[in-house]
Specification:
The two termini are about 20 Å apart. About 20% of the residues lie in helices and about 15% in strands. The chain is built from two helices and five strands. It is an alpha+beta fold.
Length: about 180
């Protein structure tokens, strides 16, 4: 195997040189700019244990099947949103999601389920979805979270979230503040 190339025909396989180049690009550009602009030492990685990831995937499959039993694994995915924890003075927003206060102001990821659905022009799109909000239509898993409320009305003030129950995952370990021991890149 040529370690200098990344063969897109082999999912899950990347050359170490490409991995290092991508990580270095982030650290030398984005991370440096963030740290300088915000005056912090932001996180450069996040770690999730395998059982947490497997449980999240199983929960996506389970909840999607409850809403629409015809939903296949190929229809489902996970979108990773870049996110930032609130500042320490606003930490009370985290009361329902226990995360160490040392994470205040640092980068994180939020994982949200997606489902393939044809949009109004016939294009197959991976839509964010909340299996707990189906708008009363079992065949309609997808909610266009940025533009529509569950009733389909445009909402610029709160989005489609209703009672604030959603399927998402965020609670991983950030480095820093976690010790980077064990990181290869």
């Amino acid at each position: 195997m040529n370690t200098e190339s990344n063969n897109p025909l082999q999912p899950g396989i990347m050359s170490n040189n490409l991995i290092q180049a991508l990580i270095d690009n982030y650290r030398q550009n984005h991370l440096t700019a963030i740290n300088t602009a915000l005056g912090i030492q932001d996180a450069h990685s996040i770690w999730f244990d395998l059982p947490k990831l497997k449980n999240f995937i199983a929960k996506i499959e389970e909840e999607a099947a409850k809403v629409n039993p015809d939903t296949s694994a190929e229809d489902l995915g996970i979108r990773f949103y870049y996110a930032t924890y609130p500042k320490q003075e606003n930490w009370s927003v985290m009361d329902s999601h226990p995360v160490p206060v040392e994470y205040a102001g640092r980068h994180t990821l939020v994982m949200i389920p997606t489902v393939k659905k044809t949009n109004e022009t016939g294009e197959l799109i991976d839509f964010d979805f909340n299996p707990f909000k189906t708008n009363g239509e079992n065949s309609n898993l997808a909610l266009n979270a940025r533009n529509f409320t569950p009733s389909g009305n445009v909402d610029g003030n709160g989005g489609p979230f209703g009672d604030d129950t959603g399927l998402g995952e965020n609670n991983g370990q950030l480095t820093p503040p976690k010790n980077p021991a064990g990181e290869l890149y």
